[in-house]
């Protein structure tokens, strides 16, 4: 499984672009980074992206989705509809976001001529998308916001993506079920009511020693023994544990 990190920073930090990473050149996990610039820069045509998973509806995770849909419609009108999987209220939120950011007339044209396939999913939902099986886990992040983490499985390896979360049952279920976990680490100096901080990530690592941790959504950039820190532009080939 090939992982490319486009955005490794938290919402308000200067450590990197906001959240987005690409799996196997086709599956985009979150759309907060300026992907219409970053994907071509990585050699990925916008038409190659088949699926977008939105973990939750905060701007640093979904804010660039209208731009991606519009850019794809304009530059690659022949591309098949983008499949977008996300939490409850995804469709309403995208409609508002698209109208506000691109204008009502233009957004309505995009939605009429090149509508995405939107699927609102919830805890336990399993979706087969091409060579990947996706399973969704509800996590606790912000009040009154439906927030998801996701497990991506290929034939040989599994990757978890935390989205934004606290140290809740959902992230523990996910961490225990994957080979690799792309895990948020927003706080570095003390606990946060809505995010994981360094000591909670270290606790999670100690609870799941067979899972390899790659930290993202970084508020700062300091070493965490035993974990890798993501950075914008990082590319990794993920293999099963013990495969080197
Ligand atoms: Zn968030």
Molecular structure report:
This protein is α/β, with parallel strands linked by helices. The chain has one domain (2-237): Ribonuclease Z/Hydroxyacylglutathione hydrolase-like (Metallo-beta-lactamase, Chain A, 4-Layer Sandwich), CATH 3.60.15. It is built from seven helices and 14 strands. It has helices at 35-41, 59-62, 65-75, 90-102, 104-113, 169-175, 198-207, and strands spanning 2-7, 20-23, 27-29, 51-53, 83-86, 117-120, 126-129, 132-139, 147-153, 158-161, 180-184, 212-216, 227-229, 235-237. It has a seven-stranded mixed sheet, with helices on one face. A hairpin with a 2-residue loop joins strand 7 (126-129) and strand 8 (132-139). The protein is globular. The model has no long low-confidence stretch (mean pLDDT 97). It binds zinc ion (ZN).
Ligand list: zinc ion
- What integer value in Å does the Rg equal? 17 Å
What CATH architecture label applies? 4-Layer Sandwich
Report strand order across the widest sheet.
Answer: 6-5-4-3-2-1-14
Largest sheet, described in full?
7 strands, mixed
Report the end-to-end length measured between terminal Cα atoms.
13 Å
């Amino acid at each position: 499984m090939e992982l490319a990190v486009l955005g490794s920073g938290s919402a308000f930090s200067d450590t990197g672009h906001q959240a987005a990473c690409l799996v196997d050149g086709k599956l985009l996990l979150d759309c907060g980074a300026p992907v219409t610039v970053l994907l071509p820069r990585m050699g990925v045509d916008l038409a190659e992206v088949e699926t977008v998973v939105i973990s939750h509806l905060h701007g640093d995770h979904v804010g660039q989705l209208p731009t991606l849909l519009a850019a794809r419609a304009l530059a690659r009108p022949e591309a098949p509809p983008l499949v977008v999987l996300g939490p409850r209220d995804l469709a309403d939120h995208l409609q508002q976001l698209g109208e506000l950011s691109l204008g009502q007339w233009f957004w309505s044209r995009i939605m009429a001529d090149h509508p995405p396939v939107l699927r609102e999913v919830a805890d336990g939902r399993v979706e087969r998308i091409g060579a990947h099986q996706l399973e969704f886990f509800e996590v606790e992040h912000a009040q009154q916001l439906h927030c998801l983490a996701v497990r991506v499985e290929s034939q040989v390896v599994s990757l978890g993506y935390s989205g934004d979360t606290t140290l809740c049952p959902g992230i523990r279920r996910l961490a225990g079920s994957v080979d690799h976990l792309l895990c948020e680490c927003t706080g570095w100096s003390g606990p946060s009511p809505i995010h994981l901080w360094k000591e909670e990530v270290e606790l999670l690592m100690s609870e799941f020693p067979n899972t390899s941790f790659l930290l993202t959504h970084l508020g700062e950039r300091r070493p965490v023994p035993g974990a890798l820190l993501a950075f914008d532009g990082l590319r990794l080939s993920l293999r099963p544990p013990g495969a080197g």
